[in-house]
Design a protein that fits this description.
heterodimer, A: 479 residues, mainly alpha, two-stranded antiparallel ribbon, 2 strands, 66% helix, globular, B: 249 residues, Four Helix Bundle (Hemerythrin (Met), subunit A), 2 domains, rod-shaped
Chain lengths: 479, 249
């Protein structure tokens, strides 16, 4: 492995962050906020670390798979470290672990927070916080390879490392095309949602911050009460629509807009995904209504928002689900584990894998009934080979195993078991809020520091699809 | 890019980063200095003036009691000195308006004090007010309490602001120290990277050249150092290549 090439690419990723840090600095400077100097200095540090390797390392047209994996994994870690600088520099309230937690939560689009009073944070810093969602949403590396002056081969290696194989199924384009589609859909949705939220009554600053958080399926809000602060049906509806869009494969949205064949109306997996969400809303609404929690229309309103928020891994809230009946919490935990579709900005397990899992069960039953029959497993017309099937099953087992291990570790640090389980599931799924002490209107500040660190590892594992990080731990087997 | 320029740029980047961290710390420390001065100038002065006003007011109260008990000379003497003390402290507070709504408090103190003064300025000794404890409690004492509570409100306003400023000082101290810590940590990482890159641009090509020359000289291999950087080492490689070609001729 050529370490210098890895460092050069990580440098480029950091320079990309420097741009957003500088924009946040300009906002703080314009508003004469105390966060201006910390943001400027963080931007400078990111720039210096980005420029440094460019001076000494010549560009390379070829990137090996090990180098690609290293660039992606270390690129994310370096990005999260630089992202935590403005918090650490700004206030003594942010210990290093708190700043690291907030930064990782932002970049991985988890949306869990340790901030107890968001509204006292300067706007420049809030913009940086939302930007971490937006940058992380599409993948820091994807952003960078768009501007990477390397060859198509190196772009393809990085793209393959950043996106899972299943996610690429619906694109059916070359690397360059996929990047273009992702960028168009991402920018288009962000601009459209900002305009609509602004029209619906949100200030422009809040609208752009909430758009960043919605499109990236993040969940950071600029208000302590999240979306509940606005108490506006129109704002909730707009956010719900865009949460669903952001949880859908971007290739499908792109094809639908262009009137191409492979669109959302033709996609079976999309229909099943939406059916699952609708069923979730129905069941939760009924339970809320019959438990005398709310009148019927409010039951539907709150259930729809919470199911879509957790089902798309966004994590916004319109009410505190900590007080909801146990049954509804279990349903919401299911959606926390299921997550949204491949090829979207969401992290975690992904609905496509759950779908393959259910199909594999059916396939197993059929093969028991007809031992000599050749039964193939198809998703949206694409045959899923045995290798992908096994990979998916191993992934699901590993995913649930990690939830179990982190839950056990958190309980070791005296976190109650419900909070530990739900926070583990919420962080590896990049969802954000859990239940118990970390419910939708609560936060993670009261967790012990080692617990916070464990959860940040969870977030990175969820974002990088687990195998990326784990494969680097077995460096010898690469040789 | 020339090697000299690469090394210089690396050093310059580290120096710029450290200089800016230093500048930031100096800026934040100077802000701390200004804040401390502001604490003394803005709030502490008014708090001290308020305390003096209360002392003067209490003396005036004693003076009034002396007048009621018929001690005209002692009463008037105390009242006059306390009044001038009060007015001088009041002037200090009036000329040191630094907080929002502080002017409203000053105005209220002035109004209520004038009302209080109206009670004791006219003659008391030899009138029906002499020995009248009832008059004192129904008219004078009420005004005394009113002025005192207005002064206390002014004092609380400044004390709260002082507390807030002191909390901000803690944050400013944090902001002054942290760039230094971050700069040191970053400089250490950059130095490790610098060492790594210097090894890459200096040691690696030298080794490659040595091995190629050895290969040519001892094993009669083709000379090819495969220097990828476009710097002095590439020029040296080309020169050696040319020299070999000339020697072959």
């Amino acid at each position: 492995m050529r370490t210098e090439i890895v460092i050069r690419h990580i440098g480029m990723v950091l320079m990309f962050n420097a741009i957003f840090l500088f924009i946040s600095f300009l906002i703080s400077l314009f508003l004469s906020e105390t966060s201006a100097v910390p943001l400027l200095y963080s931007s400078l540090i990111a720039l210096v670390f980005g420029l440094f390797p460019l001076i000494y390392v010549q560009p390379s047209n070829y990137i090996s798979i090990l180098e690609g994996t290293s660039i992606v994994v270390f690129g994310w870690i370096a990005t999260c470290l630089v992202g935590s600088l403005p918090y650490v520099l700004w206030s003594s309230e942010f210990s290093f672990i708190n700043a690291w937690f907030e930064s990782v939560s932002g970049f991985t689009t988890t949306g869990s927070t340790i901030i107890t009073d968001i509204e006292i944070i300067p706007k420049g810093l809030l913009f940086w916080r939302s930007s971490t969602h937006w940058i992380g949403g599409i993948g820091v590396i994807l952003f960078t390879i768009l501007i990477l002056p390397g060859s198509n081969t190196s772009k393809l290696v990085l793209l393959n490392t950043e996106m899972s194989a299943l996610a690429k199924n619906n694109f059916k384009f070359r690397a360059k095309e996929i990047l273009r589609i992702l960028l168009y859909v991402y920018l288009g949705l962000t601009i459209l949602e900002t305009i609509l939220l602004n029209i619906a009554g949100m200030s422009f600053f809040d609208a752009i911050n909430h758009s960043f958080a919605t499109i990236a399926t993040g969940g950071f809000s600029t208000k302590n009460l999240s979306i509940a602060y606005y108490n506006s049906i129109s704002i909730e509806v707009i956010i719900m629509v865009f949460m669903v869009f952001s949880g859908v494969h971007f290739g499908l949205i792109f094809n639908t807009v262009l009137g191409k064949k492979n669109n959302i109306f033709k996609s079976y997996i999309f229909k099943v995904f939406i059916t699952f969400l609708m069923a979730g809303i129905l069941v939760v609404s009924l339970k809320l209504y019959f438990s005398d929690m709310y009148p019927w229309w409010q039951s539907v309103r709150y259930a729809a928002f919470q199911v879509l928020s957790l089902g798309t891994t966004t994590g916004f809230a319109t009410t505190d689900t900590a007080n909801w009946p146990g049954f509804t919490q279990i349903i919401l935990i299911y959606f926390t584990i299921q997550c949204a579709m491949m090829g979207s900005t969401s992290g975690g397990l992904k609905f496509d894998r759950v779908f393959i899992f259910f199909k594999a069960i059916v396939k197993q039953i059929k093969s028991i009934q007809h031992p000599h029959a050749v039964i193939s497993l198809k998703v949206d017309g694409n045959s899923i080979n045995e290798k992908t099937e096994i990979h998916t099953m191993v992934f699901i087992i590993l995913y649930l195993g990690i939830i179990f291990i982190t839950t056990a570790l958190l309980t070791f640090f005296d976190v109650d078991s419900f909070t530990a389980f739900s926070s583990s599931a919420a962080t590896i799924g990049n969802v954000g809020p859990g239940f118990g002490d970390v419910s939708s209107l609560g936060n993670y500040s009261n967790l012990p520091d080692p617990g916070k660190f464990i959860l940040t590892i969870n977030m990175l594992l969820g974002r990088l699809e687990i195998f990326g990080i784990i494969s680097l731990l077995f460096i010898k087997s690469w040789k | 890019m020339k090697i000299k320029f690469k090394i210089l740029t690396g050093f310059l980047l580290i120096i710029i980063m450290l200089l800016i961290a230093g500048a930031m710390s100096i800026y934040e420390f100077s802000r701390i200095g200004k804040s401390v001065r502001a604490l003394i100038d803005d709030n502490y002065k008014t708090i001290e003036a308020s305390k003096t006003m209360i002392v003067a007011l209490e003396r005036e109260d004693s003076g009034i009691l002396l007048l009621i008990s018929g001690k005209w000379k002692a009463g008037r003497r105390i009242l006059q000195s306390a009044d001038s003390l009060f007015l001088s402290a009041f002037d200090t507070a009036k000329n040191n308006l630094t907080e929002e709504d502080e002017d409203i408090h000053i105005e209220k103190i002035e109004t209520s004090y004038l009302k209080f003064k109206d009670k004791w300025e006219p003659p008391i000794v030899g009138t029906n007010k002499e020995n009248s404890i009832n008059w004192y409690f129904t008219e004078v004492h009420m005004n005394f309490i009113e002025v005192k509570s207005e002064i206390e409100a002014l004092m609380t306003l400044n004390q709260d602001s002082m507390h807030l400023e002191a909390s901000e000082l803690k944050e400013q101290a944090h902001r002054a120290i942290m760039p230094g810590i971050v700069a040191i940590a970053s400089a250490l990482i950059l130095l490790v990277l610098f060492n790594f890159f210097i090894g890459n641009i200096l040691v690696k090509p030298i080794k490659k050249l040595i091995n190629s020359v050895k290969g040519y000289h001892l094993l009669s291999q083709e000379f090819n150092a495969d220097i990828s950087n476009h710097d002095e080492f590439k020029i040296l490689e080309n020169e050696i290549q040319e020299l070999i070609q000339r020697l072959k001729k």
